[in-house]
Design goal:
The structure is a single chain. The chain has 426 residues and is an all-alpha fold. The chain has a single domain, classed as Growth Hormone, Chain: A, CATH 1.20.1250. It has helices spanning 4-34, 39-45, 47-67, 69-88, 96-128, 134-165, 168-189, 211-231, 234-241, 247-266, 268-272, 280-306, 319-350, 357-422. Helix 1 runs parallel beside helix 6, helix 5 crosses helix 14 (357-422) and helix 10 (247-266) packs parallel to helix 13 (319-350). The two termini are 31 Å apart.
Length: 426
């Protein structure tokens, strides 16, 4: 699949899925907040979504390597359609306990769908790229990742719009119909060689034995935990409850945030440049930008804390200024986070060979999903007890831990590259 058609096929499938994924998150978050759910209860609604992301990435890489990435890609799209249909049948007359269980279960299916689709698309880019073309790989990964996140941002806006105009159930049905059209198109256009199959691959190979992959996966865990600690529950609820924003304003801001950082991801190769070996400079950049990321929420938390009253609230005259502080600080966070995320997405592919790419990508995104899971739970828990300042301070600590792990990755990568350079000819 060394051609542009293969790349565009997986990218198009990922685009369609991502739009519905972003819209679904915003629909669920705003709808249940409107019903009076606490921040921690809102976080709990996404529990299985994030948990099954961990499981799916760990197992999905093995399934993709053994049976083919076409099957995992199609399964991801079909499962998302099914999950949207289930959620559209939510009955307001059900008890709170049953409603929560029903939504959590349906969100779990959506989590499986998301990570099957992501693993298939990201692995497919590696197989579509000519061998030893690191510059092409970096550009294609950056465009895929950036455009995906831009569309996820559009999805946030779409979700808020559908909720406000059509309501919860009808909005979900419209999303399911749109994704069904994407699935039909992909079924007819996707090339048939989207994999390097290993039919006899043992199941225990799901765990990576590559130290570079393991360290990068650890850094990814804390990077995405740092984002979701404030992103999932803390900031949306703060904007709605404290600043008095409407659903459309909340969804619009988060949409523009994700669109903006998606754009930055797509141009990351131009921002940081590239090294001759395709790794050394990029790993160093991951370290520097991670520590830069840690500083932003730390400063933001201090500024917001200084604006608080003795009782922990905010005076009405300070709310417009507070809004500008939050918006400008998180926009800067998005820029730096985008570079970090894009470099990570490139490094996992350059660390991988074609025959083990789906395994490594699956393991790596398992760590990504675990970070989101922890970040989601902490977002509700920390916000409920320590507010937005607590969310931002915790996010800063997570980003710093990501940078600390990249220091180890940088040292290991340097040793590997020196070993390759000084090795005697065979």
């Amino acid at each position: 699949m060394k051609d542009l058609r293969g790349y565009m096929s997986v990218t198009g499938a990922y685009w369609g899925f991502t739009l519905t994924d972003g819209a679904l998150r915003m629909l669920v978050l705003l709808h249940f907040h409107q019903l009076g759910y606490t921040p921690f209860q809102l976080a709990f609604l996404f529990l299985l979504y994030e948990f099954f992301g961990v499981v799916t990435n760990l197992v999905g890489g093995w399934v993709g390597a053994r049976f083919g990435l076409q099957r995992t890609l199609f399964a991801g799209l079909a499962l998302q359609i099914f999950a949207l249909g289930l959620l559209s049948q939510l009955n307001p007359n059900w008890s709170v306990a049953f409603s929560v269980a029903y939504v959590v279960a349906a969100q779990g299916l959506a989590g499986i769908a998301k990570d099957l689709t992501k693993m298939s698309a990201k692995s497919g880019v590696k197989l579509a790229t000519p061998e030893d073309q690191n510059s092409v790989l970096f550009r294609w990964v950056a465009v895929l990742t950036g455009s995906k996140n831009a569309l996820k941002g559009v999805g946030f806006f779409v979700g808020a719009f559908l909720l406000q105009v059509f309501g919860f159930s009808t909005g979900l049905i419209l999303l399911a119909v749109g994704l069904l059209a994407v699935l039909i198109a992909v079924l007819s256009y996707l090339p048939q060689d989207l994999t390097v199959k290993q039919p006899g691959l043992p199941f225990q190979q799901i765990f990576s034995k590559d130290q570079q992959v393991n360290l990068l996966s650890g850094a990814r865990f804390f990077l995405f935990g740092a984002r979701d600690i404030w992103f999932v529950v803390g900031v949306p609820v703060f904007l709605y409850d404290v600043l008095g924003w409407t659903f459309m304003q909340v969804g619009g801001f988060l949409a523009l945030w994700v669109i903006g950082y998606g754009f930055i991801q797509s141009v990351t190769p131009r921002i940081i440049g590239q090294s001759a070996d395709g790794q050394s400079h990029e790993v160093t950049a991951a370290r520097l930008w991670a520590f830069g990321l840690a500083a932003i929420p730390a400063v933001l938390a201090l500024v917001i804390f200084s604006m608080m009253n003795a009782d922990g609230g905010f005076a009405a005259p300070s709310l417009p200024t507070l809004g500008w502080v939050i918006v400008s600080g998180l926009l800067l966070f998005g820029l730096v986070f985008a570079v970090n995320s894009s470099v990570h997405s490139y490094l996992i592919l350059t660390f991988s060979k074609a025959h083990d790419v789906s395994l490594n990508v699956g393991f790596y995104y398992m760590s990504n999903a675990a970070g989101r899971l922890v970040g989601t739970l902490l977002s509700g828990l920390v916000y409920q007890y320590w507010g937005i300042v607590g969310c931002l301070a915790t996010a800063s600590g997570f980003a710093a831990l990501s940078g600390a792990i990249v220091i180890l990755l940088e040292s290991h990568t340097r040793d590997l590259n020196q070993g390759r350079t000084t090795a005697p000819p065979v």
